[in-house]
Specification:
Helix content is about 45%, strand content about 10%. By secondary structure, it is an alpha+beta fold. The chain has 3 domains: about 10-120, no CATH class; about 150-260, no CATH class; about 295-445, no CATH class.
Amino acid sequence: MIKKDSLSIDLAENIKVLESIYADCSDVIFRHFSIGNRIKAILIYIEGMSDMEEMDKNVLTPLMLREIGRQFDIQTILEKNLAVSAVKEVSTFKDVTNEVSSGNPVVLINHQSQGVSVGFAKSEKRSIQEPTSESVVRGPRDGFIETLSTNIVLLRQKIKSTDLKTKSIQIGRYSQTKVVIMYIEGLADHALIQEVENRLNRIDIDGVLESGYIEEFIKDHPYSPFPQILNTERPDVTAASLLEGNVVILTDGTPFVLIAPTTFYSLLQSAEDYYGGFIIGTFLRWLRYAFLLVALLLPSVYVAILTYHQEMVPTSLLISVAKSREQIPFPALVEALLMEGSFEALREAGIRLPKNIGSAISIVGALVIGQAAVSAGLVSAPMVMVVAITGIASFMIPRYSAAITLRILRFPIMFLAGTLGLVGIMLGILTIIVHMCTIRSFGVPYLQPLAPIRNTELKDSIIRAPWWSLKNRPHWTSDYNKVRQPNGQKPSPSKGKE
């Protein structure tokens, strides 16, 4: 257990306590030295986490060569001896261990009850690259990385206003992961900011290794399969959310940031909707809504019609389907579950395999298994086509968290279709809609702006209206500062010379 007691003026006593704390830690270095050949001091750091060259040049050398005068204290050292911009006083053993664990060396001096933390943390980080989970058709191609400070810089480069605020906290008893709340003062509701901060402060866990840990702790309905917090690794998407009054949560060690609150329609929107023309953006949204229904309901409708409602199928098509199924030993429900389960297994296997062979294996595997299943008489050719169309439709959902929710809900709806027919499908749809109407994301209704209806926000949900008509920003919990831009910006055709 790390002591919270204050440092002693006796350096030997401080060293004894710290050596007991860092017992069996061979990578923690205690570097003894003397200031001006008179006053004993020690430099504590973790090997590999601190910049050795900078420590030698800007800490050890100036202190060891310093001439000791009458006035000698921590403030004098900070002002005259350390040519370092990032310095911090530490006064307790917990402060010392926190700084050392973060990679910042700590200097302790005899007869001084305070120490100095020097900002020489060094860490390996990958370069800024295009996001891997969100393909970019048009727009910035930079993506978040695992380094928190770099991610904050990426956002500040896009929003240069001094109203962009950050609040930092640590979560995890052992990992002590740094988490930062970002928002734009004057746009984000103060009640929303306070609620996000309160939920984060309530988290008490051993460690946080990814933002998904935090997401499970702070969402309103933990047992719902629907994502209630948006995650992204695109800085432009995050900056756009900040400008709409959202709150962003950045976690050290992961490229995925959390955006709250969110709605169901936000999960179906893509950044490219706003970078192209509004006609193209609206068409793409309608296409996603249509294929969302296909991804969720197509196998269930096929099973229900073949099992209970054959009269709905044209005679020629019904004869063709019946001919293809005459050798199939399973009912339509079992056939659909078999094919959908195999398709999901292939898709998951393609993700887990190495990238250079994963996509090839998943595509070839689907073709081979589908053809073999048809040839063996286990499934019919129409069912293979239905599953293939369903799989393609699920890939049109921009957010992975929303797409996997639809993949999960597809199976219970197939059971309802196989037992109750189209009535079962309608019961499943009604159950899902009722459930979605009860969900809130930090107080915001999940189906807003349709339930409840907010006319001003319909311009950016079902359709994507032109930028000059999006006068108001979609404020979630407040109505202050809701005007995004003035009227009168609609472009007008220029008149030619007569």
